Amino acid sequence: xxxxxxxxxxxxxxxxxxxxxxxxxxxxxxxxxxxxxxxxxxxxxxxxxxxxxxxxxxxxxxxxxxxxxxxxxxxxxxxxxxxxxxxxxxxxxxxxxxxxxxxxxxxxxxxxxxxxxxxxxxxxxxxxxxxxxxxxxxxxxxxxxxxxxxxxx
Length: 153
Description:
Elements: H1 3-36, H2 42-51, E1 138-139, E2 145-146
Antiparallel strand pairs: 1-2
């Protein structure tokens, strides 16, 4: 075997080792990122997934788009600026919930109870079945109070 062949093998071996070191380094970075990153409001998210309920929980700015939350109890929760795009919220209890700046585009709002909720600056345009939602003492996106479904004492 000539010196040129030995040199070629040596160069290929060096590139192979450098390539392996790069793969290991990338794997370590990916692994560290996955396991060391804090998940905001993990306890509240876990409760919502397991029980379908998260009354008075804190989930500001959460991405709940495309989630099935039919019949969920989210009363009194902080859902400020939450993304509920295309969420199934049929018959959900959102009474006394902070929903300022929330997005409801294409969300199904049939039977949702918004009694006492704050929807200031929320995006309701494009939501479905909003006519079947309950509004009483509800702050609407424009800041006006909606009492359409209040029952007289």
